[in-house]
Each structure stands twice: as structure tokens, then as C-alpha cells.
């Protein structure tokens, strides 16, 4: 009920203020005639019109609650000093002003103005009439009647603050959901970009090297050229299959009759990767230290993609066409090192315009499973990619601090 009245008052503020002022004035007229058996109201009623006129100040209670309370309290103090009984009807304008003061201001202001109002009205009420049976009405009654609007106004203020806080939390939650959705979309786009890069860039780099080698040997070594062209067909087929699998993930539905997707590659496909690099003219040696341990699917894919991208860079950049891959199984992580001893063709600038996403993608992959990766030129010449991956993925917050991001090659 109170909430409906408040909503109506908010929508029709001027009408509500006028009705309240008129009602408080009428109450004052009737309140001026109330008395007890021990006391009689003053014969002259014209002073009561002082408080009636002060009811006009009630219309300003919503915009100027402090000033409205001062005016109405002063008028009530004049009447109680003349001997009028401080009944709730007589104090209606003061109670209205107190309500709006408690509803629109802070607790400290309510305490100061409310205490001052009660003190003044108690003093004038006791001074305006002899002490009799109405002593309790003039003291305790006055305090209780004035505390009532203070309590209601404070409850209204707290309720309004609670509703506003709930609405603010709901708006914040909605913004958070939208931001989280945008973040997930961005992360998914980055993941798709890495998958497409890894699926296409390696095979295209190998195919480019195979085609160049075949063109160079076409006249002098036809048999070797035919073998390289056969390998080229296999390389492009593998590229198409990986691209199809990646796009298939995006278009896959819940249809149980849909074609099953090829499993994500892992270290078990490392021999095939080495063979493809060999057909492109890159000699790769693989050394394994420690006892091999099972890796989670995400870490296994990450390890394969890092080695794949490192060998792709070696195929394009290493002048000696030799690369070494070392896998070392520690107690809690897999250490991957891919090195070549040759000089690079122009340092860190990639030969393809807009390139450089390979090393960035490797770092993102390593960090996504809680690992670390560093890449850069070796002091003795050549280039090195070194990664440390946990056997089981960890969140980025659990990864070791103090990572150093080298410049992309």
C-alpha cells in the first residue's frame, strides 16, 4: 500500500503536495478544538490559522524538507505555547514535514532536526499550560507522534535505497553477462584463428618448399621430382583435411548422423610431421629424454602445434635446412626445445607481409594450458623455441610469474 502511494506521489507530485497541504490544514483546524478534562483550548481560534497557513510550507517539503520543517515546527511551537494541546491533528503539518525530511535526507540530518523539533515542542507545550492530567499527552505523546513520521520516512528511504541497489546489481550483472559473452566470443575467435593458422600455414609453407624444390630439380632429377610432387599432393591433401575438420567444428550440429571429426593431432603424429618436413628439404632429428608420460588432450595438442609452428619457421628461415627437436619429460612438465644452427634470412622480420602471428600463437597456446614459451636468436647463431608445458593444464593464474615476452620472429 505504501509503495503504491509513493509511486502515485512520484508520478503526480504537484497534486500529491496540494492534497497533503490541504489535508494537514483541515487536521489543524480540528486539532485546535481538542482538549482534555483538565484543560480547555483557548477561546480564540484565530491563532490556529497560523499553523493552517504554515501548511502551505508542506507543499515545499519534497523540494526543501529542512525549510518546510523549520516553518511548520515554528508555527506549532507558537500554538503549543498559547496552550493548544499538541495532538496528532494539530501536529499534522509538522509530522508531514518530518516524514519528507526522513525520506529524503540522511540519518544525521534527521537526528539533528528531529531532536531540535521535539525539544522545542516539548518546552513550549509544557510552558503553555499548567501541569495536569494531560502531562503525559504533552510529553510522551508529543515524542511518540513525532517519532512516527520519522520512522516511516526512514523506512521509506531505506526501502528506496534497497530497491536502487537491487536494480544497480541487476544492471551490473547484465553488463557483466554481456562483457563475459563478448570475452568468450573474442577468445573463441582467437582459438579459431590459431587453429586455422596452424592447420594452413605449416602445410602451405611445406608445400611451397616442395614446389620450389621440384621446380629446381625438374630438369636434372626427374625421379626425385616425381617423388617430391607425390609428397606435395599428400601435403595439400593433409592441409585440406585439417581445414575441413576445423571448419567442420564450426558448422557441426547435434545431428548424430553427421560425419565424425578427425581426432585432434598430438605428439603421436610427430613422425608424420617430420616426414613432411623432410620432403620439403628440412632435416629434422627428434630426441626424447626421460620417461614419456601421458598428456592431457589439450596439452598434447599444444605440444604438437608448437613443434609444428617451430618447424614451419625453420623450413622458411633456416639456411642450413637442419632442425633439432628435443622432448624432455620432467617430474611435472614437458620441456620442448626446437633449434637450428643456420642463420636466418633477415633477422626477426617475417618474409610474408603481415606475418609474425606464429610465435604469438605459440605463446598464447602455451599460456592457455598454464605453460611458458620463449623464442629468439641463439647467441651461437640460429634460432631456438623453448616451451615448458605441464602434463595437466592449469589456469593462467597458476602459471609462474615473471614471464618475459621476446620479440616475434
Automatic annotation (TrEMBL):
EC number assigned by the record: 2.7.13.3
Tell me which InterPro entries the record gives.
HATPase_C_sf (IPR036890), HATPase_dom (IPR003594), Sensor_HK_TwoCompSys (IPR050482), Sig_transdc_His_kin_sub3_dim/P (IPR011712)
Q: Which GO terms describe its cellular component?
A: membrane
Q: Which SUPFAM superfamilies did the record assign? A: ATPase domain of HSP90 chaperone/DNA topoisomerase II/histidine kinase
- TM segment ranges: 12-32, 44-60, 67-85, 97-123
Question: Per the record, which residues fall in region Disordered?
Answer: 387-409
Q: Which GO-annotated molecular functions does the record name?
A: ATP binding; phosphorelay sensor kinase activity; protein dimerization activity
Keywords, sorted A to Z: ATP-binding, Kinase, Membrane, Nucleotide-binding, Phosphoprotein, Transferase, Transmembrane, Transmembrane helix, Two-component regulatory system
EC supergroup of this enzyme: transferase
Q: Report any Pfam family annotated for this entry.
A: HATPase_c
| Histidine kinase/HSP90-like ATPase domain residues | 301-392
Q: Where is the Signal transduction histidine kinase subgroup 3 dimerisation and phosphoacceptor domain?
A: 188-253
Q: List the catalysed reactions.
A: ATP + protein L-histidine = ADP + protein N-phospho-L-histidine
Can you name this protein? histidine kinase
Q: Which organism is it from?
A: Embleya hyalina
Amino acid at each position: 500500500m505504501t509503495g503504491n502511494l509513493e509511486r502515485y506521489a512520484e508520478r503526480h507530485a504537484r497534486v500529491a503536495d496540494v492534497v497533503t497541504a490541504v489535508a494537514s490544514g483541515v487536521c489543524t483546524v480540528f486539532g485546535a478544538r481538542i482538549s482534555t478534562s483538565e484543560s480547555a483550548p483557548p477561546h480564540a481560534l484565530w491563532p490556529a490559522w497560523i499553523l493552517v497557513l504554515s501548511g502551505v510550507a508542506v507543499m515545499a517539503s519534497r523540494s526543501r524538507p529542512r525549510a518546510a520543517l523549520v516553518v511548520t515546527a515554528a508555527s506549532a511551537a507558537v500554538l503549543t505555547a498559547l496552550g493548544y494541546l499538541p495532538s496528532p491533528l494539530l501536529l499534522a503539518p509538522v509530522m508531514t514535514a518530518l516524514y519528507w525530511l526522513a525520506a529524503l535526507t540522511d540519518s544525521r540530518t534527521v537526528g539533528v532536526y528531529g531532536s531540535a523539533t521535539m525539544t522545542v515542542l516539548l518546552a513550549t507545550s509544557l510552558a503553555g499550560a499548567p501541569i495536569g492530567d494531560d502531562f503525559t499527552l504533552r510529553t510522551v505523546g508529543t515524542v511518540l507522534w513525532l517519532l512516527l513520521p520519522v520512522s516511516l520516512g526512514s523506512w521509506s528511504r531505506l526501502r528506496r535505497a534497497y530497491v536502487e541497489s537491487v536494480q544497480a546489481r541487476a544492471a551490473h550483472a547484465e553488463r557483466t553477462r554481456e562483457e563475459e559473452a563478448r570475452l568468450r566470443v573474442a577468445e573463441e575467435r582467437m582459438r579459431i584463428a590459431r587453429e586455422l593458422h596452424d592447420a594452413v600455414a605449416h602445410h602451405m609453407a611445406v608445400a611451397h618448399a616442395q614446389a620450389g624444390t621440384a621446380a629446381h630439380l625438374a630438369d636434372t632429377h626427374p625421379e626425385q621430382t616425381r617423388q617430391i610432387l607425390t609428397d606435395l599432393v599428400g601435403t595439400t591433401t593433409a592441409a585440406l583435411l585439417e581445414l575441413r575438420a576445423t571448419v567442420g567444428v564450426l558448422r557441426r550440429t547435434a545431428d548424430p548422423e553427421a560425419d565424425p571429426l578427425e581426432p585432434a593431432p598430438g605428439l603421436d603424429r610427430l613422425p608424420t610431421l617430420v616426414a613432411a618436413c623432410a620432403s620439403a628439404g628440412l632435416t629434422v632429428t627428434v630426441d626424447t629424454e626421460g620417461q614419456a608420460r601421458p598428456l592431457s588432450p589439450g596439452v598434447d595438442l599444444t605440444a604438437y602445434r608448437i613443434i609444428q609452428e617451430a618447424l614451419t619457421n625453420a623450413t622458411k628461415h633456416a639456411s642450413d635446412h637442419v632442425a633439432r627437436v628435443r622432448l624432455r619429460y620432467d617430474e611435472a612438465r614437458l620441456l620442448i626445445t626446437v633449434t637450428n644452427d643456420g642463420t636466418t634470412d633477415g633477422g626477426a622480420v617475417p618474409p610474408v607481409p603481415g606475418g609474425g602471428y606464429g610465435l604469438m600463437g605459440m605463446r598464447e597456446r602455451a599460456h592457455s594450458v598454464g605453460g611458458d614459451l620463449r623464442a629468439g636468436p641463439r647467441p651461437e647463431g640460429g634460432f631456438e623455441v623453448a616451451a615448458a608445458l605441464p602434463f595437466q593444464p592449469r589456469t593462467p593464474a597458476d602459471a609462474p610469474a615473471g614471464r618475459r615476452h621476446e620479440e616475434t620472429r
